[in-house]
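task queued by scheduler; priority normal; single chain, no ligands, no partner chains; default sampling; output format set to structure tokens
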Amino acid sequence: MNEEQFFGIANYSLTVVAAYIKPINTTYIMITPGQTMDILFTANQNLSHYYMASSPFRDSVVTFPNSTATAIVQYEDAAQNFTGSIKGLANNEYPIDVPKNITLCPNSSCETNSGYRTAASLNNELNNIFDRDFPSVPPFFFNFTGDVSNVSAYTAQGTKARMIDYGEAVEIVYQGTILGSASSDPLHLHGFSFYLVGTGSGNFGNVTHPLTYNLVDPPEVNTINLPKNGWATIQVV
């Protein structure tokens, strides 16, 4: 308890601010036991983890514990935070009409008998171009954002479409994976606007995550960002 401490954060400059002194711009500080300092730093580095370390200042021959204390500055997902901050106007001039009764979603049977139309196809006027059995849920479940060492990156071949009724309310959950080189990806629904009602990191949970949906003022957009190793839910009519 008698040794001054050097303190710094990797790749960061620090600004010491306190009453009655001029601000000090530095890459480290030295602070004594019982002393307090107010320090500012700008979170302007790449999204990653950065060590902060504190080690004792030694200017004596007396033996002392020469150890270094470390911690980590960890950024939250800035892209996901920005996406989550976008809200619809949701007023009388620009009302929000989020579907409350989802009739086509990952948890329903999705079976229809008439009034079909293609959900997505560039060849919907041609016969025998695509199959109409696009699955409602992934045919193979695994830990999408975890250990995929025993999971093949190759998918089954096929051209498939999902048939839905005209005017039907549809919910789609996009799930990112760690297969290959994981990254955030833009997703666009051509010719449609839709509501982004939820987004998050990790694997989507069909029990807990729908409880976090924004059904009050979600943004109505035609392109979203799927967060790296995360999920996003849209609703469209």
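post-processing summary
- The radius of gyration is 26 Å.
- Residues 44 and 237 are 40 Å apart (CA to CA).
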